[in-house]
Specification:
Layout (H helix, E strand, L loop, with lengths): L14 H15 L6 H8 L3 H5 L5 H20 L2 H4 L3 H18 L1 H9 L5 H26 L9 H14 L12 H16 L7 H4 L2
Helix pairs in contact: 1-7, 4-6, 4-7, 4-8, 6-7, 6-8, 6-9, 6-10, 8-9
Protein name: Transcriptional regulator, TetR family
Pfam families: TetR_C_24, TetR_N
GO molecular function: DNA-binding transcription factor activity; transcription cis-regulatory region binding
Length: 208
């Protein structure tokens, strides 16, 4: 069986650097308004150099959206999201989502702007809804365990929590003020105090 060697990127133009530039331009101009010619100009290469890495602009979009979504779904597989009381798992997922947002800010920003205008965007929205369902189930489980106030619908609570997380894309800039952990602390403090019942403090509060 013949093994086809992996294509090597041209010097100075890796797929990662190409994605970084593409996402920046998509966020500035919109995906539909961005041409491969413009991407080539921003990179200082020919279009053929881009096609060396990807077959189309759509593939760049898919890779970019998958990077944000894969980061979020990876949080759901972490031990803190799979063991312990539901309220603590929920807090872990919120903190992890803030971490993903701060480390992959342009990619998450792009994800939040898709509207389902293509099969790639439709699939990204499907995965976002799947993530939202997991979070809603955690809120519901925490409510059943007596740790979340029962007078708010779990789906509404989930939307409010992640509406707050997602709003960070509008103003957060890395290197200016709070780091990811401090930002997560601030967000959890302001949201979970209204969410939790008085029955049990958060893990961090319990250690104080």
């Amino acid at each position: 069986m013949t093994t086809v060697p992996a294509r090597r990127g041209r010097p100075g133009h890796s797929l990662d650097s190409l994605l970084d530039v593409a996402v920046a331009v998509f966020n500035e101009r919109g995906f539909e308004a961005t041409s491969m010619d413009e991407l080539a100009t921003r990179l200082g290469v020919t279009k053929s150099a881009i096609y060396h890495h990807v077959p189309s602009k759509v593939e760049l979009l898919r890779l970019a959206l998958d990077r944000a979504l894969d980061g979020l779904f990876a949080v759901l597989d972490e031990p803190g999201a799979t063991t312990g009381p539901a309220i603590d798992r929920l807090e872990h997922v919120v903190r992890g989502s803030v971490r993903v947002l701060t480390t992959q800010l342009p990619f998450v920003t792009l994800l939040l702007r898709v509207r389902g205008n293509s099969p790639v965007e439709t699939d990204a929205l499907r995965r976002r809804r799947e993530f939202d369902r997991v979070v809603t189930d955690l809120v519901r489980a925490a409510e059943e365990q007596g740790d979340v106030r029962p007078d708010v619908d779990p789906a509404v609570t989930s939307r409010l929590l992640f509406g707050t997380v997602n709003s960070l894309t509008e103003w957060y800039r890395p290197g200016r003020g709070l780091d990811a952990d401090a930002l997560a602390d601030a967000l959890v403090t302001t949201t979970f105090r209204g969410l939790r019942t008085a029955a049990r403090p958060s893990p961090r509060e319990a250690l104080r």
